[in-house]
Amino acid sequence: MAKLILKYEAAVLKEIPLQKASLIIGRAAGNDVVIDNLAVSGHHAKVVVEEDHYVVEDMNSLNGTFLNSQRIRRSALKNGDEILIGKHTLVYNDEGGVPANAAAASLEKTQEMKTAPMGADSTVVLDTKKRREFLAKATAIASEGASAENKERIGCLTVLSGKTDQREYILTSKLSVIGKSDMASVKLKGWFAPKVAAVINRREGHYDIAPSDKAGATKVNSQVLSAPRELQEGDLIQIGGVQMQFYLRE
């Protein structure tokens, strides 16, 4: 069975067997792997099963996720790979690959995960020389060919559980409808899915979500959505058996 070895500098802190289809890493208490360090975002990265191998994916963290000293968005893992999150390292040890039950399972996400509030517990930007070099290189690559005026971050929804027609949605439209109707851009599946559960509006660099159609059908961070509210990075949207997470990317 594959596992992750959590290290801080040379010290081994713990070993984490990869026994299910999704493992979330971050500072918030509800994560599968909690790293209590202010350089780590609330929900920083995840390791997921993809066919017969594991993949590490950054969850739009502030300080980024690095694989073998290279900043990544998403990358397949191989034996011996080192994932750098904040000041901690996770070494991927492939001892027998992906368990059959993990490969067959759907992506899991506990409802106990809560977004860390902004303020004293906000993520601290690392300022080490090595990290500055990494970030400078990554930023240069990402911004190559882009104008200084065109740096608006785009909202995205990642499906954590439930039946939808896609696993990720990029919210580039001014209006995104969530439901099973033909006009929905985030298409829910299932007999009991509402035709229009919620509507996401994009305006002036931020996103608002508003309830629609069936009252009480939509929850944000386990709270019933009864009025429009602005979406924050890491917010969990739940509609029936479908759970999605909102994040921003450039």
Task: Walk me through what this model shows.
The protein is built from two helices and 22 strands. A six-stranded antiparallel beta sheet has the order 2-1-11-10-7-8, covered by helices on one side. Strands 13-12-22-21-18-19 form a six-stranded antiparallel beta sheet, with no helix packed on it. The chain is mainly beta and about 250 residues long. Mean pLDDT is about 80; it is low at about 105-120 and about 145-150. The protein has helices at about 100-105, 130-140, and strands spanning about 5-10, 10-15, 20-25, 35, 45-50, 55-60, 65, 70, 75, 80-85, 90-95, 155-160, 170, 175-180, 185, 200-205, 205-210, 220, 225, 230, 235-240, 240-250. It is about 10% helix and about 40% strand.
Q: What structural class do you assign from the helix and strand content?
A: mainly beta
Q: What's the end-to-end separation, in Å?
A: 36 Å
Residue-averaged pLDDT: 80
The largest sheet has its strands arranged as 2-1-11-10-7-8
Uncertain ranges:
106-120, 145-150
H-E order: EEEEEEEEEEEHHEEEEEEEEEEE
Shape category: globular
Estimate the helix proportion, in percent: under 10%
Radius of gyration: 19 Å
Largest sheet: 6 strands, antiparallel
Helix count from the secondary structure assignment: 2
Instruction: Give the amount of beta strand, in percent.
Output: 35-45%
Number of strands: 22
Record the SSE blueprint.
Elements: E1 3-8, E2 11-17, E3 22-26, E4 33-34, E5 45-50, E6 53-58, E7 65-67, E8 70-72, E9 74-76, E10 82-85, E11 88-93, H1 100-104, H2 129-142, E12 154-161, E13 168-171, E14 175-179, E15 186-187, E16 198-203, E17 206-211, E18 218-220, E19 223-224, E20 229-230, E21 236-239, E22 242-249
Parallel strand pairs: 3-4, 14-15
Antiparallel strand pairs: 1-2, 1-11, 3-5, 5-6, 6-9, 7-8, 7-10, 10-11, 12-13, 12-22, 14-16, 16-17, 17-20, 18-19, 18-21, 21-22
